[in-house]
Amino acid sequence: MKIGLALGSGSSRGWSHIGIIRALTAEGIIPDIVCGTSIGALVGASYVSNNLDKLEESVCSLSKFDIARFFEINSSLNGFVNTEKLHQFLGKYVAQDNSAIEALDKKYATVATDLDNGREVWLTEGSVLEAVWASISLPGLFPAIRNNNSWLVDGGLVNPVPVSVCRALGADIVIAVNLNGDIIGKHFQKSKNIAKQNVGAASKISSLVKEYSASVFSTTRDEDQPPSLFEAIAGSVNITQDRITRSRMAGDPPDILLSPKLSHIGLLEFYRANEAIDEGKECVQRMLPEIQHVLNVI
């Protein structure tokens, strides 16, 4: 009996995948097949490359300032992510540049979207890092990635929870992780009194960069104030992924569905890894009777 683990998209909420993998492993549940979309592709690659310990240690130490350094304002308008810093991060904590999917101990795949025609693309061979990079390329933040004469972007646009990929690779049982179950509208934290905070070293940065950096994270705002650019992007992504996830899983439901409660974590609040990981572990514990029942029955 082969177990497949489908790790869904959800940006910073995806650190909960680490907690879920830890909790499943502690119960002796080891997947034979790992498929991921977006942040799920990143965490999944780190796991199958035996780098999960290093990734967890790194993300649990991230601060707001550390996250802001991954973003930059540039004239190319291809995206806001500092690709050089991201590449260094992926190479250190996810997989080496020369790591190939075919050489991994477990079956692994990522999902990306063909920007030209909207088709779903499964990356099941070749460079691990290229497969991850294509799957995480959220429009507006990352530049599209060229692969086999196609421009690829975030797989969450077409298959946020890759249950179908796990089954196609031979999984008899699929454990799926949906990070988008309770997120609609939750990234807005409304308040009539907007507190001004002393950001220390950031105060030396230009007012434009301050405004940009602040918009990366969830903020409080007056209910009559229109959403910022990043709030609008976050809301749009949340709605899209929620609706697509519902549709895809209705047609191809997993055998076990894990839905950690993560609505309090904003789209780009990657510095809240400890909270996300803890909730991932707690989610497995809440579902453990169902997990054991399904595994024993099948």
Structure, described:
The structure is a single chain. The chain has 298 residues and is α/β, with parallel strands linked by helices. 39% of the residues lie in helices and 14% in strands. It contains ten helices and ten strands. The strands form two sheets. Strands 1, 2, 3, 4, 5, 6, 7 and 10 form an eight-stranded mixed beta sheet that branches. A two-stranded parallel sheet has the order 8-9. Helix 8 (207-216) links the parallel strand 8 (189-190) and strand 9. Helix 2 packs antiparallel against helix 6. The longest helix has 25 residues, at 273-297. It starts with a strand and ends with a helix.
Task: List the SSEs and their pairings.
Elements: E1 3-7, H1 16-26, E2 33-37, H2 39-48, H3 52-59, H4 64-68, H5 83-93, E3 107-114, E4 120-123, H6 128-135, E5 145-147, E6 150-154, H7 163-168, E7 173-177, E8 189-190, H8 207-216, E9 220-221, H9 229-251, E10 256-258, H10 273-297
Parallel strand pairs: 1-2, 1-7, 2-3, 7-10, 8-9
Antiparallel strand pairs: 3-4, 3-6, 5-6
Helix pairs in contact: 1-10, 2-6
Q: What key phrases describe this protein's structure?
A:
single chain, 298 residues, alpha/beta, two-stranded parallel ribbon, 10 helices, 10 strands
Topology pattern, helix = H, strand = E: EHEHHHHEEHEEHEEHEHEH
Low-confidence spans? 187-216
The helix content, as a percent range, equals: 25-40%
Distance between the termini: 8 Å
Arithmetic mean of pLDDT: 85
Overall, the morphology is globular
Largest sheet: number of strands, sense, barrel closure = 8 strands, mixed
Counted beta strands = 10
Alpha-beta classification? alpha/beta
Q: What is the overall number of helices?
A: 10
Query: Rg to the nearest angstrom?
Result: 19 Å
